[in-house]
Amino acid sequence: MSNFEGIKHIFFDLDHTLWDFDRNSKMAYAQIFKEEKIELDLEEFIKVYEPLNLIFWRRFRESEITKEQLRYQRLKESFDACDFHVADDHINKMAEMYLDYLPNHNHLFPNCIELLDELKERFELHIITNGFDEVQERKMHNSGLKPYFKYVLTAETAGVKKPDQAIFVKALNDTGATYDNSLMIGDSLEADIMGARKAGLRTIWFNTDVDADYQNELSVSDLMEIQSLLLP
User: Fold this and answer.
1) From start to end of 2-113, where are the E strands?
2) Which of 13, 20, 164, 187 is catalytic?
3) pLDDT tens sequence across 165-192
4) Is 13 an active-site residue?
5) Where are the chain's structural domains?
6) Is residue 200 exposed (0-12), middle (13-18) or buried (19+ Cβ within 10 Å)?
7) What is the rounded (10 degree) CA torsion for 62, 66, 71, 74?
8) Considering only CA atoms, which of 81, 125, 105, 91 is closest in space to residue 19?
9) Closest CA to 45 of 77, 5, 1
10) CA 35 to chain CA mean position, Å
11) Cα(29)–Cα(23) distance, rounded to whole angstroms?
12) 9-19+108-230 and 21-104 share one CATH topology?
């Protein structure tokens, strides 16, 4: 018997799972640097920014900082680490530009649409994301993802963030799903996988980091691997 026998509902994370956040983010910053005449090497900035962004998102997820602090501090610390001075008002301006520009770049992970085309005929597909309402809505609309998902739950709407069990329980209740007929797929071992498992869901970890190897964790590095796990 398949480990996924009886699955009817599949809950996906959005950023870093379907929507290629790092690629789209870099493109947004390239546009901002050009328009704002930021004379700093983009590659140098991105190399510093990406790990810092993950740290600040973790702090936001754990309610240590507000979303306003997240937006400011990830830029402030990145510029400081590059030894490049930017005034606070300019940082705040670029933080707003980033949120405006980010959803305009809509690269998805390879095989994303191909997988969703296969799954939509057999399962009800949903999104659970820690991202912000307006930005996530625009990402899904602009990238063509929106028609595939019957239900989208953001942490902002839920009032609680992954990995808190409450966000998964709300998603189950809202969709009429149950823990034993539901599957969570996401890139964050802590937020998506451990959080969903505590709520009783089965999980598949989308892990593109070759160094993050957990022998006992079911993971895939290509979205199309999910098809072979779920479909005969």
Assistant:
1) 9-12
2) 13
3) 999 999 999 999 999 999 999 999 999 9
4) yes
5) 9-19+108-230, 21-104
6) middle
7) -50
8) 105
9) 77
10) 27
11) 10
12) no
Q: What is the pLDDT of residues 32-54, one digit of tens each?
A: 999 999 999 999 999 999 999 99
Q: Name the CATH code of domain 21-104 (choices 1.10.150.240, 3.40.50.2300, 3.40.1160.10, 3.90.1150.10).
A: 1.10.150.240
C-alpha to C-alpha distance for 95 and 70, rounded to whole angstroms: 10
**Is 15 in the active site?**
yes
Backbone angles phi, psi at 39, to 5 degrees: -90, 65
Quote the CA–CA distance of 58 and 226 in Å, as a whole number.
26
The residue length of the chain stands at 232
CATH 3.40.50.1000 correct for 9-19+108-230: yes
Q: Tokens at residue 187, please?
A: 């890139």
Helices and strands in the chain: count of H runs, count of E runs? 10, 6
Question: Pairing mode, if any, of strands 219-220 and 202-206?
Answer: parallel
The label of the residue with tokens 């593109």 reads 208
- Spatial distance between the Cα atoms of 28 and 124, rounded to a whole number of angstroms: 32
Q: Of these residues, 15, 20, 187, 192, which one is catalytic?
A: 15
The answer to whether the predicted template modeling score (pTM) of the entire model surpasses 0.85 is yes
